[in-house]
């Protein structure tokens, strides 16, 4: 597999740390827990998208693009990373976000919304589903930019495309090599799953490099994530001409019962999980992705899914900026009070 043949621009600081979590391991009674700190990737506030963007931005530059068109929800970590990556490489971004109404502006700028503002980004808000963003909004905006003389590059599905997934094929090898240097064998890697690219890349890396590591996905939003990830695995394997068996949904270890009331919704168990990790390891998780992923991991440990002798790596994908918009429900639920909201008032993520 010749990933080195694909253009890549250095945006992050790799390898990211692979650290022990001894206090959380003790609190839960095993298995041995490690954490892969992709929240320390070195671009903007860090996160898993850095690895994808090293390949995606390189592809954009190769094609002569001068502006990136992409987006997600208003508080999107993906958008923050894209904007920062573009600026580092001399490109502006036009961010198309879902929101409660056209031209929506929040009452309070915080979290990623504030970061987008500070970076001087053009953010356009559309009261549509994600499928419409991907289906026509990005293309409509890109066509408008072409008419103004620009050469836009559209980034789809939060980077969960074959080019973007190269980053997490590499990440699996990086983790495997770090563990080998520590004379450690990794049995499982646990990751959150939204758009599916990180999970798919890890699965492909585990298979292609014959690591023996099992990848467990935790869905953070509704939908058939096993089918989504299987499709991404097959698409990228074909893209790379990898001679691997076709993946089906039944081949993907995916847990969908920790989504709660939906994407970006918060509850007491989630807040307790965030607090536990902060108070045992001094590590901050967010309520949208990593908090739900850790909540699922802890529940699986309690149910005996892992052996006490296993070594399990939790992939920290970043997103801590999203702690701040959730301050009210985090504090209220921590104190067993009723929060003013549990679903984000600014709409979809």
TrEMBL record:
Cofactors, names only: pyridoxal 5'-phosphate
UniProt keyword Ribonucleoprotein present: no
Entry's EC annotation: 4.4.1.25
Keyword Lyase: yes
Modified residues (N6-(pyridoxal phosphate)lysine): 49
Molecular function GO terms recorded: D-cysteine desulfhydrase activity; L-cysteate sulfo-lyase activity
Pfam family, any one: PALP
Family to which this protein belongs: Belongs to the ACC deaminase/D-cysteine desulfhydrase family.
Protein name: L-cysteate sulfo-lyase
Organism: uncultured Spirochaetota bacterium
Upper lineage: Bacteria, Pseudomonadati, Spirochaetota, environmental samples
Gene: cuyA
